[in-house]
């Protein structure tokens, strides 16, 4: 780490950072490249930034990699994204195991290719015993889906006599959300690149008290310097408003 990174890491860090990876296609268009090249650049950036986050003390990183709405994109683009997931899960397995990073994939797996489903299960099984570093990757995920499946789970437990209606509260709800897999299920900091100032359909419940940061840079250009700027902004917010970290 350089001196700037050391100063940032010595301050209180967000335990859980969530990122909406926005801008791959616009990044490619600006450079006269194909959409697939934009997504490939975004995938490389994803892994580089995850390594920086963990190095600076973050416990959980959540990445909105493929939303439910993304199925509406052109078929070739969707196939490209599915192939990229497979490629990088395979290529980065040694890194996950060497650095003891637990991989957790959340979302509806019904529509993703069988080969990718099998690979996800393999990676999750190989890393399930690791503690302290959680990489949550949201594939075919939506905040609405997450809340709905949590409500259905609670309703089933009431029907089966496992709990009473009076037992349902915020804590019970959070235990049913897909982010229950992390020690820190609710993000302290959510970053959305590209300048869009909304969280769309990502972590709708979990982000109620989250600091929201909207840099204008496109995702493939969001490097270490930009991440340090986000951390500095977050730490200033904590000092100014005394919010939880």
From TrEMBL:
Q: In which pathway does it act?
A: Protein modification; protein glycosylation
Q: Which superkingdom is the protein from?
A: Eukaryota
Cofactors (names) = Mg(2+)
One GO CC term on file: chloroplast stroma
EC number(s) from the headed UniProt entry: 2.5.1.-
Question: Which keywords has UniProt assigned to this entry?
Answer: Transferase
Q: Name one Pfam family in it.
A: Prenyltransf
One of the GO BP terms on file: polyprenol biosynthetic process
Q: Which GO terms describe its molecular function?
A: ditrans,polycis-polyprenyl diphosphate synthase [(2E,6E)-farnesyl diphosphate specific] activity
Q: Which CDD domains match?
A: Cis_IPPS
Q: What class of enzyme is it?
A: transferase
- What PROSITE patterns does the database record attribute to this sequence? UPP_SYNTHASE
**Cross-referenced NCBIfam families:** uppS
Q: What does this protein do?
A: Catalyzes cis-prenyl chain elongation to produce the polyprenyl backbone of dolichol, a glycosyl carrier-lipid required for the biosynthesis of several classes of glycoprotein.
Q: Spell out the family assignment given in the record's similarity comment.
A: Belongs to the UPP synthase family.
Recorded protein name is Alkyl transferase
């Amino acid at each position: 780490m350089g001196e700037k990174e050391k100063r940032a890491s010595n301050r209180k860090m967000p335990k859980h950072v969530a990122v909406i990876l926005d801008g791959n296609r616009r990044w490619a268009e600006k450079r006269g490249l194909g959409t697939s090249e934009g997504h490939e650049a975004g995938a490389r950036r994803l892994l580089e930034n995850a390594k920086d986050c963990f190095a600076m003390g973050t416990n959980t990183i959540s990445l909105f990699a493929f939303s439910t709405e993304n199925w509406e994109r052109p078929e070739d683009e969707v196939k490209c994204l599915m192939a990229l997931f497979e490629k990088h899960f395979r290529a980065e397995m040694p890194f996950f195991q060497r650095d003891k990073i637990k991989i957790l994939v959340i979302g509806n797996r019904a529509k993703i290719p069988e080969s990718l489903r099998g690979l996800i299960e393999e990676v999750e099984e190989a890393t399930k015993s690791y503690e302290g570093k959680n990489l949550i990757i949201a594939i075919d995920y939506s905040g609405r889906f997450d809340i709905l499946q949590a409500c259905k789970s609670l309703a089933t437990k009431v029907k089966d006599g496992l709990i009473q209606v009076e037992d349902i509260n915020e804590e019970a709800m959070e235990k049913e959300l897909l982010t229950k897999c992390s020690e820190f299920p609710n993000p302290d900091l959510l970053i959305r690149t590209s300048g869009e100032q909304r969280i769309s359909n990502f972590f709708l419940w979990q982000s109620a008290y989250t600091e929201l940061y909207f840099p204008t840079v496109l995702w493939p250009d969001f490097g270490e310097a930009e991440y340090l700027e986000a951390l500095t902004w977050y730490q200033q917010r904590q000092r100014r408003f005394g919010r939880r970290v």
